[in-house]
Specification:
Mean pLDDT: 89
Oligomer: single chain
Number of domains: 2
CATH class of the largest domain: Alpha Beta
CATH architecture of the largest domain: 3-Layer(aba) Sandwich
Distance between the termini: 16 Å
Order of helices and strands: EEEHEEHEHHHEHEHEE
Structural class: alpha/beta
Shape: globular
Length: 236
């Protein structure tokens, strides 16, 4: 699903965020990018999301070489990708329903189909009963779940998340990861940047450790059945 080949990302001033990075993530895999602050985790995700482009090297997603995606076609590419951010990036002047519906509105879905998809996504994250509330009335964990619902409402094949549990306590963090696991169980590929090694170890998933923009020796996945989840009604 994802193939990174000798990717270098150099910012103005000469700072290299990624240094010849090569890695791959298989279709249907749930993997974690780990490392200290500044290790290159967010930069890697930004390359996959086409927020940044590599200085050299290649980023290939679902068989598509992103260096060949023109600026005009970036919005269409991102509609096939789910993105979750640590700071939620919600619209606080809109209710939960409208926040989750935003990708569908941009994509031109009709009201009836969009409403069905929004409610299915909210049901998966346990917030269907709060669809008319404003985000500021929700807890931090609930706001993060709204962000997750928005990311998966278009049923993407690939979901990337940048420190999605960074502001949550351990119980809420595990709850969020269980939500991700349910999506993974119905075929969604997930790549998650996180520094929470203890939480990742509970999941038994593969770790992709970065240090100063370079790949370190990887930690393999153990048994992924130690945290069961119900795929529910959300299907590809």
């Amino acid at each position: 699903m994802i193939r990174i080949e000798n990717a270098v990302k150099r910012f103005p001033g000469g700072q290299e965020a990624l240094k010849g990075l090569t890695l791959s993530v298989a279709r249907g895999e749930m993997a974690f990018v780990t490392g200290h602050s500044g290790a290159g985790k967010s930069t890697l995700l930004r390359l996959i999301a086409l927020i940044e482009r590599p200085t050299s090297g290649q980023v290939i997603v679902d068989g598509q070489n992103l260096s060949r995606v023109s600026r005009r076609k970036i919005p269409a590419y991102r509609r096939e990708l789910g993105m979750v951010f640590q700071d939620h990036k919600l619209l606080y002047d809109r209710p939960v329903f409208d926040n989750v519906a935003l990708p569908l509105v941009i994509a031109g879905f009709g009201h009836r189909e969009a409403a069905r998809k929004v409610r299915a996504a909210l049901d998966q994250v346990g917030l269907l009963h709060k669809e008319r509330q404003r985000p500021e009335t929700l807890s931090t964990g609930e706001q993060q779940r709204v962000g997750i619902a928005r990311a998966i409402v278009s049923r993407p094949k690939l979901l990337i998340a940048d420190e999605p549990t960074g502001n949550l306590d351990p119980d809420l963090s595990l709850e969020v990861m269980r939500i991700f696991r349910r999506f993974n169980e119905v075929g969604v590929t997930l790549l998650i940047a996180s520094h929470d090694i203890a939480l990742i170890d509970q999941l038994g998933c593969r770790r992709i450790p970065l240090e100063n923009g370079a790949l370190q020796s990887e930690a393999g996945a153990e048994d992924q059945d130690d945290m069961p989840g119900d795929a529910g009604t959300w299907q590809q």
